[in-house]
Specification:
- With 138 residues, the chain is an all-alpha fold.
- The chain has 2 domains: 10-57, no CATH class; 73-134, no CATH class.
- Helix content is 53%, strand content 0%.
- The protein contains 7 helices and no strands.
- It has helices at residues 10-20, 27-40, 47-57, 73-83, 89-97, 102-113, 118-122.
- Helix 5 (89-97) runs antiparallel to helix 6 (102-113).
- The two termini are 14 Å apart.
- Bound molecules: iron/sulfur cluster.
Length: 138
């Protein structure tokens, strides 16, 4: 699943990058505008999903693709909370309180990858994903 199950068409994404890159301040701002564009048309994507797909497709945004590193776990948590749906934010808080938990990190990554659909994680068929055998909801 992974790259294909969040079904973002490459050329459509390229068009959106070109539409918004000149009015964006940085890469995260661009991803948020594109996510909003998709969401306004009935599809729910987080900005980090958009960021990941831009990276996977190798689309040139004109921006430095490295999102600014957060200096501490509090800042990291605040950043993550913005992109995680309300019902899953408890895992972000748990990760803040236990930042060495790989289980929580993988759970949040798989949920993000699957657009927060537990069934998509359970049925993931991306056998070459390094997280496949560790994914939750099996
Ligand atoms: S194992 Fe998790 S991260 Fe990997 S493709 Fe499946 S859902 Fe996505």
């Amino acid at each position: 699943m992974g790259k294909t199950k969040v079904n973002i068409d490459q050329s459509e994404l390229l068009n959106k990058v070109n539409k918004y890159k000149n009015v964006s301040k940085n890469i995260s701002n661009l991803c948020k505008l594109i996510a909003k564009d998709y969401n306004d048309n009935g599809t729910t994507y987080s900005w980090s999903t958009i960021y990941n797909r831009i990276s996977v497709y190798g689309i040139d945004t004109g921006f430095d693709m490295r999102v600014k590193k957060t200096a501490n776990i509090t800042a990291f948590t605040q950043l993550l909370l913005k992109s995680v749906p309300v019902e899953y934010r408890k895992y972000v808080i748990q990760l803040r309180d236990n930042p060495s938990s790989r289980r929580l990190a993988i759970k949040l990554k798989c949920l993000d990858c699957s657009n927060y659909q537990q069934g998509e994680v359970r049925g993931c068929q991306c056998f070459d994903c390094p997280l496949y055998i560790f994914r939750p909801y099996k």
